Automatic annotation (TrEMBL):
Compartment annotation: Membrane
UniProt-listed InterPro entries: ENaC (IPR001873)
UniProt record similarity statement: Belongs to the amiloride-sensitive sodium channel (TC 1.A.6) family.
Origin species: Drosophila persimilis (Fruit fly)
Principal place of residence: membrane
Annotated membrane topology: Multi-pass membrane protein
Alphabetic keyword roster: Ion channel, Ion transport, Membrane, Sodium, Sodium channel, Sodium transport, Transmembrane, Transmembrane helix, Transport
Protein name as it appears in the record: GL17553
Transmembrane intervals: 28-47, 400-420
Pfam families: ASC (PF00858)
GO CC aspect terms: plasma membrane
Matches recorded under PANTHER family: AMILORIDE-SENSITIVE SODIUM CHANNEL-RELATED (PTHR11690), PICKPOCKET 3 (PTHR11690:SF285)
GO molecular function, one term: ligand-gated sodium channel activity
């Protein structure tokens, strides 16, 4: 059978191994050669399979920049003074029935300031109210929404027909306003479909001057410039904006795009996640969202509550006593080193290149308007890039199959068609052998039954005659024979 299979597959060595006309030593040498070749082919195929599992992607440089379109950076604005005094008076009156003439009024006002100014890295002032049971049932997120200052700024851009999206979001810096940041919609905790998210303002590099301008009236705060597909989380591009400041910042962009072929690979293979993929219990993924959720889950495990910075994470909200518990655990300092999340397959990184800052100042004469009319502005421009990174598949499943065939052809000298022929010959001959064995067994069983039946028939007459023997007395009574001549 092996000789026929070797001849069908074109592998002469197999035919030589089973050829009994050759010397035993020669057949043994051919056997060692064949086994060594098979082992080498298996080892090489294993290395290729390991490469397919661990590093099938490559990041290359793309320089065809003339037709690129890019997204402008998002900005998250967090006011220095969050609280609206008129709304704060109403809230204290409605919830605790305390007016400005009561002696406890400023105590409650201090509590409101502690809540609206709390951040994930600094909430010690809020933890001081942990012993007061009057604050245990207060919804801190609802409190912030009711007393927070509204967004009363003017947004303009190079595209007069595009309305830049602005929304209030709850970040780890507290209540802020996200501008040109569709990913920040996830922070609200409402169900959102990625395909239905509002798109950020984009422009064609090289043909337009890409910028967004924000004019603030009687407002100062901190600006965080980040990718529109991430949320405010880092301190990389922080800009402080004070009254009468006019700031123009230019940002250099490094974009990483991804090929659609990456969808065919698993997350472990490509080592990145697309924004529209569901992972880490997030319907819409970004690395900053994943890290924020990890810190929120750790707070939930430690103190059985979720800080109000994470409205997109389910769980009971933390009251001042809960924040005191988190303070005892030194959250989230140690959580920063534990939370690990994969990067997104498409990334946009902005680096501040130039900053021009000028201050108008406020004059002290009566003819000039007071500080209530003082304005500040922030304009962010995008420097057209000349290069970008492309993440693509360099070793696909088809390449893996081809490598298997190459290893077999190089070491064993057989193709996939040869393997099929060999398998067909072996399977066909095995069926013939099994059929022959079944027929032989059937023939032997039938012969055994025939012999057994013949033996039984041969023993039956003798037994019968032994019972029919006549005695001498019976013989005497028989009539005499008549002889006929």
């Amino acid at each position: 059978m092996a000789e026929i299979a070797g001849a069908e597959a074109g592998v002469l060595a197999i035919s030589l191994i089973v050829n009994k006309q050759l010397h035993t030593l020669e057949r043994s040498i051919w056997l060692v050669v064949v086994l060594s070749s098979i082992y080498a082919a298996i080892m090489l195929s294993g290395l290729q399979y390991e490469r397919y599992l661990n590093s099938p992607t490559v990041i290359s440089v793309d320089r065809d920049y003339r037709g690129w379109n890019g997204s402008l950076p998002a900005v998250t604005l967090c006011y220095y003074d969050h609280i609206d005094s008129f709304k704060a008076n109403e809230y204290i009156q409605d919830v605790w029935n305390v007016s400005i003439i009561d002696e406890d009024y400023f105590y409650f006002m201090d509590f409101l300031y502690a809540v609206v100014n709390a951040t994930a890295s600094n909430y010690a002032e809020l933890a001081k109210f942990a012993e007061d049971e009057r604050f245990d049932q207060v919804d801190l997120y609802e409190l912030i929404q009711r007393v927070d200052r509204p967004f009363e700024q003017v947004i303009s851009s190079f595209d007069a027909n595009f309305k830049v999206h602005v929304q209030m979001v709850m970040t780890e810096r507290g209540s802020c306003y996200a501008i040109n940041s569709p990913m920040s919609s996830v922070l609200s905790g409402k169900p959102i479909v990625y395909e239905e998210m509002e798109q950020p303002l984009s422009c064609q590099y090289g043909k337009q001057q890409c910028y967004i301008r924000m004019d603030l009236y009687e407002s100062t705060g901190v600006l965080d410039v980040h990718s529109p597909y991430e949320v405010s989380a880092t301190e990389a591009n922080i800009v402080a904006l004070h009254k009468s400041d006019e700031i123009t910042a230019s940002f250099k962009v490094l974009e990483t795009v991804a090929s659609k072929n990456l969808y065919e690979l698993s997350v472990a293979q490509r080592k990145c996640v697309f924004n529209n993929e569901e992972t880490s219990n997030l319907k819409i993924y970004s690395k900053s969202l994943c890290l924020a959720r990890c810190r929120a889950v750790m707070a939930l495990e430690m103190c059985n509550c979720v800080p109000f910075f994470y409205q997109f994470v389910e769980g009971p909200g933390c009251n001042p006593a809960g924040f005191e518990c988190l303070l005892d655990f030194k959250w989230p300092i140690w959580a920063l080193h534990i939370c690990k999340c994969p990067s997104t397959c498409t990334e946009i990184e902005y680096t501040m290149q130039t900053v021009k800052k000028s201050s108008w100042g406020v004059k002290n004469n009566d003819e000039v308007a007071s500080s209530e009319t003082a304005t500040s502005s922030f304009r962010w421009d995008l420097i057209p890039p000349k290069v970008r990174m492309r993440r693509d598949v360099v070793y696909s499943f088809e390449d893996l199959i081809v490598s298997f065939g190459g290893a077999l052809a190089f070491f064993v000298g057989v193709s996939v068609l040869g393997l099929v022929e060999m398998g067909h010959v072996l399977f066909h001959n095995m069926l013939l052998d099994i059929s022959t064995l079944i027929r032989w067994v059937y023939t032997q069983a039938r012969r055994h039954r025939v012999i057994h039946r013949e033996v039984a028939e041969a023993s039956t007459p003798r037994h019968r005659h032994s019972h029919q023997r006549l005695s001498l007395a019976d013989t005497a009574e028989l009539p005499p024979f008549d002889y006929v001549n």
